Amino acid sequence: MTTMPVARRRRGRVMVRNTVVGLSFLLPNFTGFLLLTLVPVILLFYYAFTDWSVFGGAEWSGLDNFERMLGDSSFWTALTNTLYYAAFHIPLTLAVSLGLAMLLNRRLRGVAFFRTVAFFPYITSIVAIAQVWNMLFSPTYGPINELLRFVGVENPPGWTTSADASMPAVILVGTWRDMGYYMLLFLAGLQTIPGQLYEAAKVDGANAWQRFRAVTLPGLRPTTFFITVLLTIGSFKVFDLILVMTDGGPGQSTLVLSQYIYKKGFEENEFGYASAVSIVLFAICFLVTIVQFLVNKRRSE
Amino acid sequence: MTTLKPRRKAPGPLRILGYVALAVAAVAVLLPFYWMLSSSLKSNNDVFSIPIQWLPAEPVWRNYLDIWTRSDITTWIGNTVLLSAIVTTLQVLTGSFAAYGFSKITFPGRDVLFLAYIGTLAVPWQSYMIPQFIMMSKLQLTDTLWSIVALQAFGALGVFMMKQFYESIPDELVDAARIDGMSEYGIWRRIMLPLSVPALASLTLITLVNTWNDYLGPLLYLRSPDLWTLQIGLKSFINEYNAEHALIMTGSVLSVLPIVVIFLAGQRYFVEGIATTGLKG
Question: Model's pTM, two decimal places?
């Protein structure tokens, strides 16, 4: 009977000791994480409801920022442009990276070389990439338009210098940069599909397209789901590529949400209003994650 | 027996199609890099010649000397190397340290804290860069190299990656060491670290590349030219000398080269790191 409290006390002491030791492991990283990520994320939801210019402090202003946003045509342009980028970048990257992954999953010579090379764009700095592509896209002397003229296009687009073609140019470069990364994720997914399934489908007389529809796509569903989430969030927060390549221009033709936050916050020092726009970006990414999670869950049931 | 060798050989036409596709894709990926390299060896007037000069008529090696005197690239490289080294060391140490606490020690509140890490992984940095900037100003870190250290070194990614790896190490091993009287710190140092070399290598490479290439952090925080990193310096050089096409490409090659070398040397770890955190994230 007397051993019970002793055991409990000992267990209690072990728990206290574990807590202290455990926290000491977390502390170095958690301090930095707390101050520079967690607290800012929480503060965001306060600043968004304040009027804060660089001179005064934050002053509570309720929903003013959000009301202002409704009538702010630049905000709507930024939002529309972001949707435009996402609407093309997501399917394009999905298709290209899946295609490349399926290509690499075959036994062809040079596959290992290509797997290495496809990753180069992803590890190369945005500044260098944007600069090279801007030169390639140069309207009068650039190699891309020279090629287009060579194959008979009489008036090739002005790319980053024209309001109509600047977004397509940015989308192309964005896809070029990302495809190696997502290709790798698809490749990992493809390799989890058992070869017997393909054999069975072949025995049943399924052709290549039918095998793709009936075996590859269902087998890749978790991978595709995950990649779509990553791509969607990545598209909605697209920032540095556009900042360096076009700076939102010409005009506002490539102005995106992240860049608008940057403009309002760091160039015009309107921290409150910029935080309210940040909330929109946050909400979109959050919503996308939730919706896709639910859809995927229902499908797998 | 031949039927037992699946996908050894695709039928002829499909196979040829595969090679064509592979070749097209390889050209599409590599051509911009080739353009960068060949332009860096041209005289400025030859960069945009019509028709395109695929090979520089006479390689202008001078560009690779001029860039050092025409720009502050020495300072930029110095800052970038310093930052990459500090950030990577801190990220790997604090990340693996915290991951040990999260995966091998049980205590109340642990899972809630970990949830905070996971939760913020889904929040885009762009949406909290403003409150973060205000925090940095309050800590008086803006316009110092420390701001970039603070920004990059405590990310959730390192903790997440290392935790995932540590969970694959059986608890029995840790328990046995505890029974032998080893302290938790000793277990982390003498057992976990040596066992997790592949994961540490992945994290090191990914952090190194991220820090080296980061443009937005330095753009927001580093205002004084003597603090500039390679990316921000290169961008200002582009803005200032926008007609010096050849020299701009020379600078670009120099900024990309170290990363390509590091990537080629540690490719296996790099790819593994991305595939594991990618798929389970």
Answer: 0.87
Burial of B77 (0-12, 13-18, 19+ CB in 10 A): middle
Closest residue in A to B9 (Cα–Cα):
A107
pLDDT tens digit string along B142-177? 899 999 999 888 888 888 888 988 988 888 888 888
CB contacts of A36 in chain B (<8 Å) are 132, 135-136, 150-151, 154
Write down which residue in B43, B65, B87 finishes a domain: B65
Contacts of A233 in chain B (CB under 8 A): 122, 124
Does any domain span residue A67?
no
Confidence of residue A56 (pLDDT cuts 50, 70, 90): low
Q: Which of B5, B128, B219 to mutate to test the interface with A (most CBs of A within 10 A)?
A: B128
When pLDDT is averaged across residues B8-31 and rounded to a whole number, the result is 81
State the nearest Cα–Cα gap between B191 and chain A, in angstroms.
15
Query: Do A40 and B135 lie within an 8 Å CB cutoff?
Result: yes
Q: What's the pLDDT band for A256 if we cut at 50, 70, 90?
A: very high
Per-residue exposure over A72-97, b if at least 16 CB sit within 10 Å of its own CB, e if not: beebebbbebbebbbebbbebbbebb
pLDDT of amino acid B10: 56
Domain, as residue range, for B164: 66-280
Average pLDDT of chain B, as a whole number? 85
Written as six digits, the tokens of A52 are 């804060």
Q: Quick one: average pLDDT of A75-89?
A: 93
Residues A105 and A8 in one domain: no
The secondary structure of chain B, three-state, reads CHHHCCCCCCCHHHHHHHHHHHHHHHHHHHHHHHHHHHHHCCCHHHCCCCCCCCCCCCCCCCHHHHHHHHCCHHHHHHHHHHHHHHHHHHHHHHHHHHHHHHHHCCCCCHHHHHHHHHHHHCCCHHHHHHHHHHHHHHCCCCCCHHHHHHHHHCCHHHHHHHHHHHCCCCHHHHHHHHHCCCCHHHHHHHHHHHHCHHHHHHHHHHHHHHHHHCCHHHHHHCCCHHHCCHHHHHHHHHHHCCCCHHHHHHHHHHHHHHHHHHHHHCHHHHHHHHHHHHHHC
pLDDT of B3 reads 39
Backbone angles phi, psi at A51, to 5 degrees: -105, 110
Residue pairs spanning A and B at CB distance below 8 A: 287
A161 part of a folded domain? yes
State whether B161 and B223 are in the same domain: yes
Residue with tokens 């502050």: B72
The confidence band for A6, taking pLDDT boundaries of 50, 70 and 90, is low
Interface contact A123-B260, CB threshold 8 A:
yes
Q: Are residues A265 and A161 in the same domain?
A: yes
Q: Tens digit of pLDDT for each residue in B212-267? A: 999 999 999 999 999 999 999 989 888 888 888 888 889 899 999 999 999 888 88
Whether A153 and A244 share a structural domain: yes
